[in-house]
């Protein structure tokens, strides 16, 4: 029995809570995963997992063995990675998920640079605004926007989203331009609801260092970023989007900033990964590279006036951000 492979299979079964998902992420037949776990239990002469028709549970022995396996595998990966400068460097598949706009506008234009630095890393990039479960779906790292609260994951802050409140010229011509936050009660918004909770996300504004949430009426609510921006451009109502995504439309006159004296609450951008990936050389170099990309873009470091550098030349589709509840690639509301 290959004990190292058995440890890898066992930890993946625990992480994904499924023999089938573990098999998929390891590119192994499900029968092989089952056999490896059975052989491992026989070798150790203990039961590691309690199997039911609905879920898997660790036995006390299984929990203790799992913790040791995670440390051993991390040590092995760190040891191998320490020789990366003498060999071919970080290598293997790296699965990363991120909001579509960040992927298309920030990451994709610079991919050649990453592959020049790390030619042995095969990137699998997923773009979308819906949450993913890193462990169960076998994702190594995600880029997320918003307040983070899940201690089971590690997060590194790499940037800041500064939002902007905008409406189309057609909407403002029909309804007038709000001059104060109170005036919003006489206006309509395009509402955005969480795909996870179904809750409408209120607009928010920072006034005298305090955040004020504003519940607005609206004729339509959506949970898709492109539909949200499209509704705003067509004059359906007022919207709040990240400034760097709205900027091409502001420059083209397709959107107009309203209430510029009160900005939405800035939201952190983080690279997030499971604890058992924190020593992985390929994850580490990707996160370092992503941090570099955001550092080059002042508008993604919260610098509102630095709008001429690192901006898309094409019209983006947005990532929706609302007061502490991000709609981004990955499970919502997590932290290190």
Counted beta strands? 17
- What is the count of structural domains? 2
Which structural class should the secondary elements be placed in? Answer: alpha+beta
Radius of gyration: 23 Å
Question: What's the gist of this structure?
Answer:
It is elongated and about 75 Å long.
How does this model look, in words?
This is LysR family transcriptional regulator. Belongs to the LysR transcriptional regulatory family. Residues 309-336 are annotated as: Disordered. It holds the Pfam family LysR_substrate. Keywords: DNA-binding, Transcription, Transcription regulation. By secondary structure, the chain is of the alpha+beta class. The chain has helices spanning 3-16, 19-26, 30-44, 60-81, 100-107, 111-117, 134-137, 169-175, 225-233, 243-251, 281-295, and strands at 49-51, 56-58, 92-98, 121-127, 141-145, 153-161, 163-167, 190-193, 200-201, 203-207, 210-214, 220-222, 239-242, 256-257, 267-274, 321-322, 325-326. The chain has two domains: 3-81, Arc Repressor Mutant, subunit A (Orthogonal Bundle); 88-336, D-Maltodextrin-Binding Protein, domain 2 (3-Layer(aba) Sandwich), CATH 3.40.190.290. Strand 8 and strand 9 (200-201) form a beta hairpin. The protein has a five-stranded mixed sheet, covered by helices on one side. Strands 13-7-14 form a three-stranded antiparallel sheet. Strands 9-8-12 form a three-stranded mixed sheet, with helices on one face. Mean pLDDT is 82; it is low at 312-336. Helix 1 crosses helix 3 (30-44), helix 1 crosses helix 4 and helix 2 (19-26) crosses helix 3 (30-44). The chain contains eleven helices and 17 strands. It starts with a helix and ends in a 10-residue tail after the last strand.
């Amino acid at each position: 029995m290959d004990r190292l492979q058995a440890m890898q299979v066992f930890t993946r079964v625990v992480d994904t809570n499924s023999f089938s998902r573990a098999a998929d992420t390891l590119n192994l037949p499900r029968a092989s995963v089952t056999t490896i776990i059975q052989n491992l239990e026989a070798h150790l002469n203990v039961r590691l997992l309690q199997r039911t028709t609905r879920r898997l549970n660790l036995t006390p022995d299984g929990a203790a063995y799992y913790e040791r396996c995670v440390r051993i595998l991390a040590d092995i990966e760190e040891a191998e990675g320490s020789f990366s400068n003498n060999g071919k460097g970080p290598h293997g598949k790296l699965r990363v998920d991120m909001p579509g706009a960040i992927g298309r506008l920030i990451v994709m234009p610079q991919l050649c640079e990453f592959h020049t630095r790390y030619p042995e890393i095969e990137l699998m990039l997923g773009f979308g605004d819906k949450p993913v479960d890193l462990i169960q779906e076998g994702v190594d790292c995600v880029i997320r926007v918003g307040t983070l609260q899940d201690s089971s994951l590690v997060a590194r802050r790499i940037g800041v989203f500064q939002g902007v409140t905008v409406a189309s010229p057609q909407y403002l011509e029909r309804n007038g331009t709000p001059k104060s936050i109170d005036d919003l009660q006489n206006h309509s918004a395009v509402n955005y609801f969480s795909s996870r909770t179904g809750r409408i996300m209120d607009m928010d504004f920072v006034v005298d260092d305090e955040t004020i949430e504003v519940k607005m009426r609206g004729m339509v609510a959506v949970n898709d970023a492109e539909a949200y921006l499209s509704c705003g451009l067509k004059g359906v109502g007022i919207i709040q989007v990240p400034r760097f995504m709205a900027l091409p439309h502001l420059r083209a006159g397709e959107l107009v900033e309203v209430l510029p004296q009160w900005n939405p609450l800035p939201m952190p951008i983080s690279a997030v990964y499971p604890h058992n990936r924190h020593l992985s050389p390929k994850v580490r170099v990707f996160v370092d590279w992503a941090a570099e990309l955001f550092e080059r873009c002042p508008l993604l470091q919260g610098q509102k006036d630095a709008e001429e550098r690192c901006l898309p030349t094409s019209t983006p589709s947005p990532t929706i951000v609302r007061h502490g509840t991000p709609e981004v690639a990955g499970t919502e509301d997590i932290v290190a």
